Amino acid sequence: MIEALLLRWVLTALFAGTALWSLTRLAARGSGLADRVSSAAHLLMSALMAAMAWPWGMALPATPQIVLFGLAALWFAFLAGNRRRTDDHHGHGSPALAHLHHALMMAAMVWMVATMPLLMTGHSPDSGHGGHHHSLGASASGIAAAGPLPTGPTGPTGAVVAVSVLLGAAFVLAALPWTARALDIGRGALDAGTGAAGPTAAVPGRTRRAVALDSACHAAMSFGMGVMLLTAL
């Protein structure tokens, strides 16, 4: 859960945007089964990440999320290792790396859901985290009530914090290549409009827009996940 109300709304808007794009990809004509499964996984991830920013999101059942995102991580890992599938990933420059990034994001979702109760113990009872955890009561069955998990004398163990920091920083940095690709595609669209030669000038405009939006979507998801991991500490 995000304590800062402004950041909570910003992340909600960000994940609402990625969910909308994932839904568009899911419903797009001509999409194959693999693309639809991948889009559905991203849609689910976006929706639940938005929910996790709010107190009521901590009451969502943890076990189904762990199972679903664990399966999604295996799915993207399969795509990363399947040469036939990685030959077409909406025009991305390195499809195998793109699928690997998605697999790591889904695995990070499992990590977040599993460790959220532990991370919440590191906040004082007067904070938004601790107060919400207390308000759920003993009967809560969602993420906030999952456990028990090992803690240190004053909260989460150093290993859990270290992993969360590393994952958070890695996903923030991983957003940069996706952003750069979206900008490159945008520049290609400008080149095509002015008649200048560019690396994507020969690609149809509709395809360029789809690839640029897809890259921007994954950049936003990666950045948002990184921020969520870091702010949960």
Automatic annotation (TrEMBL):
UniProt xrefs under InterPro entries: DUF5134
Record's keyword terms, sorted: Membrane, Transmembrane, Transmembrane helix
Organism: Saccharopolyspora erythraea
Annotated coiled-coil segments of the chain: none
Identification of the protein by name: DUF5134 domain-containing protein
Bilayer-crossing regions: 6-28, 62-81, 102-120, 158-178
Pfam family, one: DUF5134
